[in-house]
């Protein structure tokens, strides 16, 4: 995960310019300054999308019997939310294998909340 982030950050000239604006004389950037660089946040999100910490998810137990697409899932069944697959599904992501932090911005440049992006799963 760290490798893809560092490689992507190094080759992103726009991000480098934005980081140079908030860092004085190469000083370490603090959390408040990081929040002022939305592109950095988008790069981190995109890295977590492509390389989730737990690709196969964390097992969960179904609280109540449910039916999904005609299949019965009994109460207590262990399920694995496959983040790796969800984060690469063309139904939710255009060109899902490409590193594109811009996918996390709306047309006004604000970070958007894509419901298909769940790097830490659903609570």
TrEMBL record:
Gene3D superfamilies noted in UniProt: Cytochrome P450
Origin species: Sipha flava (yellow sugarcane aphid)
GO terms of biological process kind: organic acid metabolic process; xenobiotic metabolic process
Protein name: Cytochrome p450
GO-annotated molecular function: heme binding; iron ion binding; oxidoreductase activity, acting on paired donors, with incorporation or reduction of molecular oxygen, reduced flavin or flavoprotein as one donor, and incorporation of one atom of oxygen; steroid hydroxylase activity
InterPro entries: Cyt_P450, Cyt_P450_E_grp-I, Cyt_P450_sf, Cytochrome_P450_fam2
Record GO cellular component, one term: cytoplasm
Pfam families linked: p450
Keywords carried by this UniProt record: Iron, Metal-binding, Monooxygenase, Oxidoreductase
Family: Belongs to the cytochrome P450 family.
């Amino acid at each position: 995960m760290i490798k893809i982030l560092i490689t992507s950050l190094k080759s992103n000239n726009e991000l480098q310019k934005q980081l140079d604006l908030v860092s004085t004389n190469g000083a370490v950037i603090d959390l408040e300054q990081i929040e002022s660089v939305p592109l950095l946040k988008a790069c981190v999100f995109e890295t977590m999308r492509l390389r989730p910490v737990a690709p196969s998810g964390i097992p969960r137990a179904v609280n109540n019997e449910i039916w999904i697409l005609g299949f019965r899932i009994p109460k207590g069944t262990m399920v694995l939310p496959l983040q790796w697959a969800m984060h690469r599904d063309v139904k939710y992501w255009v060109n899902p294998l490409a590193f594109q932090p811009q996918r996390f911005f709306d047309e006004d440049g604000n970070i958007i909340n894509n419901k298909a992006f769940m790097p830490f799963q659903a609570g």
